[in-house]
Amino acid sequence: MKRSSWREYEKEIAHDHYYYARSCIRQNFFPGSETTFLRIMRDVLGKDIYDDPRHTSCTGIGYHTDIVPLDTTMAVVARQFALMTEAGYENMAVSCITSFGLYTEILETWHEFPETEARARENLRQATGREFRIPKNIAHTSDLIFHNREEIERQAVRRLVDAATGEPLKVVEHIGCHYAKIFPKSGIGGSEFPYVLAGMVEQWGGTVVDYPERRHCCGFGFRNYLVQANRGFSIANSRKKLESMAPYKPDMMVANCPGCAMFLDKWQYALAEMENTTYGADGRGIPVLTYEEMAGLVLGYDPWEMGMQMHQVDVEPLLDKLGVKYDSAAKFLGRGGKYIGAPKPVAVNSFSGDRLYRIKQ
Amino acid sequence: MSAIEWGYGINAPRTMDLDRNDIGPAREILAEMPEWGACIACGGCTATCTAGNLTSFNFRRVHTLVKRGEYAGAWAEMNKCMLCGKCRLVCPRGINTRGVVRLIKRKLGDY
User: Fold this and answer.
1) Which of A233, A270, A275 is closest, CB to CB, to B11?
2) Which of A99, A177, A193, B19 is the most buried (most CB within 10 A)?
3) With bands split at pLDDT 50, 70 and 90, how would you rate the model's confidence at A253?
4) Cβ of A235 and B10 within 8 Å?
5) A240 contacts on B by Cβ (under 8 Å)
6) How far is the alpha carbon of B50 from chain A, nearest alpha carbon, in Å?
7) What percentage of chain A carries pLDDT values higher than 70?
8) How many whole angstroms separate alpha carbon A194 and alpha carbon A209?
9) Which domains does chain A have, with CATH numbers?
């Protein structure tokens, strides 16, 4: 049967005036990405985005691990909406995929079961005396970068190409499961044709690697990781993806979910220690970037200002390939030139000839 | 190898990787008994199996795994078969199931 419309795969994204909901875990793992996002939105795109210090965690991780009850989660989310309403905003820009999935899930729940919304409103009123309006538009922040990818390209100082050869970089894109796998209509391209990251990569000159396990989970899965006994399952999922992508020799990975970027990055260290296996070129790891970092590199931002020294897998080989000028000596200098400490050398970042380089060809 | 005590290992996958499995022995069995290829996996053999009523033996499961190159434990499982031949009486495709059991045991003794 002929598909009547692709409209169901499209998504409405607000053009301006956003209330920014930060992620709790991203600020630890990729601490410069959210600042980079705000810098791009304000300085490059000239958008109005409100960064509110009063909002809290969405409780998503506690909710998905069955620690925080649903009613508590709904009340906390209702409070975020109340803060947005009080600040005079109607569009929500959510930094975290877990939060984005949770807000979407709660709005759907309220839509299907209005009594749950009434209960959440009453709980919020009793606890804080606040009222809220349902957001007109909820977008993940990667949606906003995707939405403005052409303007970013116009202001770009470089493209995602090998500076020496002009060849497009091979990019693995990984989209968080809670972006569109729970409610397909909430994501660009739905769960079948998610295009949010691929659209950025292609717009900025790279090519997307279409490997067999492209849509496989990164392995985080909340309780799969949070319970130590289950971590073997978590790392097995990441390994499955890495083994699947390695033969395509990707230059980098890009993810739009805090957990995915963290696990795809840090599990490479664990796999190198456990199995003596690395998956990138020259026996090193494959650098994992957030989409803000990728956009920042395209716009010519300093990698250390974007916090890229906090990655587990070193990004220097990628920066060299892109032709990015950076100061190696400044890598571990923080604010005001203060030395923040350097990590010990680890297997995933240092190639030596005796390392076993096991990639299924 | 790692000197770090992680407290967990990497779980072995439970999915079948047909690209990696050695399909040779299964092909040899199929060559000697082509009718095995006509199996529709209805499970009649398992439903009527005397050994299956007394133990966890599941003939359909084991021979299907063998067909896909998953041989681990197949020989030991097939030893549970009492060779009574009831499965052969009910097979809608007329497969010599007892013969399949004996062939699997003969071919996979080393696995």
Assistant:
1) A233
2) A99
3) very high
4) yes
5) 13
6) 37
7) 95
8) 14
9) 14-141 (1.20.1050.140), 149-349 (3.40.50.11810)
